[in-house]
Amino acid sequence: MQIDVDLGTRGYPVVIDAGLLSRAAEWLKPLARGRSMAIVTDSNLSHHRQTLQTALAAADIATTVIELDPGEGSKSWATLESLTNQLLELGIERGDHVIALGGGVIGDLVGFACAILKRGCNFVQIPTTLLAQVDSSVGGKTAINTRAGKNLIGAFHQPSLVLIDPETLATLPLRELRAGYAEVVKYGLIDDANFFAWCETNGPALIAGDITLRTTAIAHSIAAKARIVAEDERETSGKRALLNLGHTFGHALEAETGFSAALLHGEAVAAGMALAYGYSADRGLCPADDAARIGKHLRGVGLPDGLAAAGIVASGTALVDHMRHDKKMAGGSLPFLLSRGIGETYLDSAVDLADVARYLDRQTR
Ligand code: GLY
User: Fold this and answer.
1) In this structure, what CATH number is given to the domain that contains residue 337?
2) Which of 42, 74, 268, 341 could form an SS bridge with 254, CB 3.0 to 4.6 Å?
């Protein structure tokens, strides 16, 4: 199945199909233009890399592999420097397409390297984690991390093509799969109550391994993301900001754990969405039953539904202090995504951080 991201000359197809990795040459051959292709991946993904290389070799497409260390540590100045030097040594031209094969770290780093290499060369995203398949591989956000925080140096640079093979999820650790599923649930909570109900019915079987349900969830998520990105590519109108539901609370939780493996990004987003709905209910903006329903679903699939479940014991003030470093701070205030009910998320730019701190303190008592 194909979903188009409608961005005019920067538009591109997202192709979703079980087993697609072995048939990738069909899509990549026209982009290779008879030249060798660079595949950037991480050392945990040799199985997927071999499948891709075999498929491309069968179509007479030569490949060179650049293998990076797995993990968030690779989204660094040092790895960016080394990667761009290696791509330059390979003689990558602006018209070439570099392949990013991996999760969000690989996609973000390779996308940023391609944004700056020779002032911009092409790239293709082949995401292999659920989180990258439903979120980060589409939309053109690319970045590295710095001392001052995550994703603070980057660029909007759209890929030319996204190839998603849901079968790559078969080898993904369960914890990472669940974390990616939080971003699936997010699309229901933003503006699609029917999809949240679909998640309630199908989430457990999806996580247990049902490939048809996984493919459906990916396609639904990408269609939703493609619509939002087409409307607000550079996050200027407030529409794309809706994709950050749960991320402001979540970012504070990640900061509290030092962005360590103690809390994966998707787990922080799950707890953050529960807190965003909990806070909305606390303020009487959203029915308490809706917030409870979300918590029940997240718990039911093994995701944290709040501070305690995320292992956070910090005070509300400490958590709000982390929020003050959020890159979305504007003019001294922080836009929050709140809700009027399931599927009714909206941006509120007048949230009092002291009130949020009091709410968070009540959660830890
Ligand atoms: N992950 C949020 C966005 O792409 O805007």
Assistant:
1) 1.20.1090.10
2) 268
**Residue bearing the CA closest to ligand 1, atom 2:** 243
Contact partners, residue 90, CB within 8 Å, separation at least 6? 36, 38, 64
pLDDT of residue 365: 54
Read off the pTM: 0.95
Establish whether 227 is a catalytic residue: no
Distance, in Å, from the CA atom of 80 to the CA atom of 320, rounded to the nearest integer, reads 32
Q: Give the ligand 1 atom nearest the CA of 225.
A: 4
Kindly state whether residues 161 and 183 are assigned to the same domain: no
Read off the pLDDT of residues 290-304 as tens digits, 9 standing for 90 and up.
999 999 999 999 999
Q: Give the end of a domain, one of 144, 171, 198.
A: 171
Does 356 have pLDDT greater than 80?
Answer: yes
Query: To test the ligand 1 pocket, which listed residue (130, 134, 135, 187) has its Cβ within 8 A of the most ligand atoms?
Result: 135
Pocket probe for ligand 1: among 137, 222, 240, the residue whose CB has the most ligand atoms within 8 Å is 240
Alpha helices (runs of H) in 146-264, residue ranges in sequence order:
174-191, 193-208, 211-231, 247-256
